[in-house]
Amino acid sequence: MEDILSISQELSRGLFVTVSILIASSLLAYFMGFISGLLRLSKYTLVRKLTGFYIEVFRGTSLIVQLFWLYYAIPMLFGIPLGSNWIIGVIAIGLNYGAYLSEVVRGSVEAVDNGQTEAAIALNMSSYQKMRYIILPQAIRMMLPEFGNYTIQMLKGTALVSLISLNDILYYGNILRSSNLSQAPLIYLVILIFYFVLALPLIFLTRKAEDISKKGVAN
Amino acid sequence: MTKPIVEYKDVHKSFGDVEVLKGIDLDIFPAEKIAVIGPSGSGKTTIIRMLMTLEEPTDGDIIVDGKNLWKMEKNGKMVEADEKHLREIRGDIGMVFQHFNLFPHMTILENCMTAPIHVKGENKKEVKQRSIDMLERVGLGDKINNYPSQLSGGQKQRVAMARALVMRPKIMLFDEVTSALDPELVGEVLEVIRDIAKNDDMAMVLVTHEMDFALDVADKVLFLDDGVIAEQGSASDVIEHSENPRVQEFLSRFRG
């Protein structure tokens, strides 16, 4: 019991990095998801193609390799320093999950019944007004559960930043294990519990979101 | 003689290889009530959907209040209309749909208020009062804060009419508005349309399968068959006294 407490104490030093990266990268991912999801629906082929390229590259390659690209390769190749490790972690996770979320956004917008668009036209709305007042409010309800699921995945994805020497929960766990090999099973058990407890509110919010999304949508 | 508010000039419409409308010429006069009847697949709905800018004609012109709906002048040439041009013209036109198409995330009062406020930029308080009045007129004054999902089909369709009327259109289009309703709910919707037809001075075009209703409300009836207007005239001329065998065959299916 005492061991668990002392392990928890050590791990909690990484809590701030894990949570702050989660929050910042989800905000970036939501932003990218919305922008690129809507651009995918643009009437301009070039815009659709370029956005599609971003999405497929980031969905089609592994997050950890993207992280290493941003951390090692790009600064070396182009001499562009991308900022602190924290910023690089946020960019990699945010862009990666933004690509997934953009498909959620696009899919939800397309899933709103076409009759809604026709009613908006019959009321003489502009494309913008139609999107803003009719389509998006309904599409967002449909998106909520998937946004919740991807946020939970992002929480787990943040563990990768320990590999670019960011001091998150897993990083402190690994340090602890290397100085105390016999405790490895216990250490990793406590780490699992840490992530699970962090995920609990997200799981709860996702359930709520599912309830909301069941109401008030025409499809 | 008054000028027509809408003119169709040799309008054609194809979907892929299928030509649905094969040259429609039609004048709609202010305050005129027109019923469009005919077998399904004859292109009835397409006629009014083109006027609402939901479908673009393949060929021909639709003139609204002297202005070409689907074409505009640019650098001395006639080009395809852009959204701005369409919006300038279609503001005078309203439509009620077969499947209501109410906005499910808004109360029925908000359904009525959103377009006058956001599209026309009207005063919110005034719009609210007008919307409430209109909902009372269609018999839903006690439901203004309900959501569409809480209403019956007939009630939804009455909301849809109030929503269109609040925009004060000069032309109202009705696309088989009773076809999706349970039989016992048809009456309440027709009652509201009858009231509008008798008391409002806008032009109305009704695509309908309700012959008795067409006879009662319409000044003019068009019989559409195979993409052309096969017969037109006063309601009693077409529905009661037509000698066109296609019309008789079509109507005999309703008389049973």
Structure write-up:
The complex is a heterodimer of chains A (219) and B (256). With 219 residues, chain A is mainly alpha-helical. Chain A has a single domain, classed as MetI-like (MetI-like fold, Orthogonal Bundle), CATH 1.10.3720.10. Helices cover 80% and strands 0% of the residues of chain A. With 256 residues, chain B is of the alpha/beta class. In chain B, the strands form three sheets. A six-stranded mixed β-sheet of chain B has the order 8-9-10-3-11-12, with helices on both faces. In chain B, a hairpin with a 2-residue loop joins β6 and β7 (77-80). Chain B is globular, with a radius of gyration of 19 Å. Classes of the chains: A mainly alpha (219), B alpha/beta (256). Chains A and B meet through α6 and α7 of A and α2, β8 and α3 of B.
Strand order of the largest sheet of chain B: 8-9-10-3-11-12
Annotated CATH homologous superfamily of the domain at 1-91 and 219-255 in chain B: P-loop containing nucleotide triphosphate hydrolases
Average pLDDT reading of chain A = 91
Number of helices in the DSSP assignment of chain A:
9
Largest sheet of chain A: none
Proportion of residues in β-strands of chain A: under 5%
SSE order of chain A in H/E notation? Answer: HHHHHHHHH
Number of strands of chain B: 12
State the CATH topology of chain A: MetI-like fold
Task: Give the strand tally of chain A.
Answer: 0
Contiguous runs where pLDDT drops below 50 for at least 5 residues of chain B = none
Main sheet record of chain B: 6 strands, mixed
CATH superfamily of chain A: MetI-like
Shape of chain B: globular
Any idea what the radius of gyration of chain B is? Answer: 19 Å
Instruction: Examine the secondary-structure arrangement and name the CATH architecture of the domain at 1-91 and 219-255 in chain B.
Output: 3-Layer(aba) Sandwich
Determine the strand fraction of chain B and express it as a percent band: 25-35%
How many helices of chain B? 9
Low-confidence stretches of chain A: none
User: Helix content range of the residues of chain A, please?
Assistant: over 70%
CATH topology of the domain at 1-91 and 219-255 in chain B: Rossmann fold
